[in-house]
Fold this protein.
Amino acid sequence: MIGEILPYVDKTGSAFRIGECGEEHTADLQEMYDTFSPKAISQGLPPANDKIRYDWVRRMLDRGINFAAWMESKIVGHSALICDLDKRDGEYIIFVTAAYRNRGLGSELTRMTVDKARNMGLTTLWLTVESYNFRAIHVYRKVGFAFCDEGELERTMILCL
């Protein structure tokens, strides 16, 4: 069951809503990624190829716990938690449309996803981030993620819950 979608106000004073999203939001989520620019911005994601991108969105909705940020009626941010319940860990991914970055949406999506992981009893979250994506690294560090490797182009960060 999808949780409640809550109202928020971003750093500019604009209203947005944030909460879990599921299959009923497939078309809106697909539209966000279809118009996302540039494609393949981080580790080849979101996929540039239409068919591969469609399948990728479907897999995230099928396999993960997903959250979205809506400005008016459009999804402008998306995060997903892909769980391995046997290991009690999960991979975290997030994308925010360029026009809505640096407004607090990524931070709220991250906090909501981390809270969900904790409530599920996961012990660890991990993500990969490109080494020069300082804005994203700042958000991740604010909630407690720390680097666990020394990669040049991309690095892994872990959050112990």
Notes: Helices lie at 26-35, 50-63, 105-119, 134-142. The CA atoms of residues 7 and 142 lie 22 Å apart.
